[in-house]
Design brief:
alpha/beta; seven-stranded mixed sheet
Length: 229
């Protein structure tokens, strides 16, 4: 973007979406599933023995190997309760991976799916939602999704130009959703939307009163949905 480096903007987006999602954990969920976990640090930051008691990180096997190598190099031990579930969202069996990781099918889970869906085909997204809709009633999903160009604001469109450039490095954005369309897809798979959240609404409004160039953009939103089946 003209007044902020793309990497700074991406870090701001990642921090705000994590803050929103992790606030939902509280003491209501004993299971936290992180889809496309990448280098997520929640399991390393949360208090030992506190909720959630099990954190299941789901990601591509190669990405998980890389993360574990980085943890070893940094002298970070894998905390109790953290389980790695290797799976490819485009071709793997997510439910089988969750069961192998010890997901309790009788207890609700909070599922985060942040910074991932835009890189997947709509078929892979629908297949994943079909699995999540079979989780215990009361389970919740926080999913980040990219808006189509017509719904992006000016700052969002500027940042989208950098995202499109990533396609040259083999990381194209493949899926975009209008909020109503995503709500319909979620409902089709047994998830009822609670809210759609703009970046500006993810944290306390006062945190956006900044003197630098990092201000919210409307490019990717969060949706929070509850399993009703």
């Amino acid at each position: 973007m003209r007044d902020a480096q793309p990497s700074q903007t991406a870090l701001m987006a990642a921090a705000s979406r994590a803050a929103y999602t992790e606030r939902l954990l509280g003491d209501r969920f004993e299971q936290y599933v992180v889809l496309g976990a990448g280098l997520d640090t929640f399991a390393l930051r949360c208090a030992p023995g506190g909720p959630p008691t099990r954190v299941i990180e789901v990601d591509h096997p190669a990405t998980q190997r890389w993360k574990r190598e980085l943890m070893t190099a940094a002298g970070l031990a894998s905390p109790d309760g953290l389980v790695f579930a290797p799976v490819d969202f485009e071709s793997g069996d997510l439910m089988a991976a969750l069961r192998a990781a010890g997901l309790d099918p009788e207890r609700p889970a909070l599922v985060s799916w942040l910074g991932v869906a835009m890189y997947l085909t709509e078929e892979a997204i629908a297949a994943t939602l079909a699995v999540l809709g079979r989780l215990p009633r009361g389970s919740e999903l926080v999913m980040e999704y990219a808006l189509p160009p017509g719904l992006q604001d000016e700052r969002g469109a500027e940042y989208a130009s950098f995202a499109l450039a990533a396609a040259d490095r083999g990381e194209p954005w493949l899926s975009f959703f209008a909020p109503d369309d995503l709500s319909a897809l979620l409902k089709q798979h047994g998830l009822e939307v609670v809210e759609h959240v703009r970046q500006a609404g993810r944290v306390t409004p006062g945190l956006w009163r900044r003197q630098d160039a990092l201000r919210p953009a409307d490019l990717c939103r969060l949706t929070r949905a509850i399993v009703t089946g």
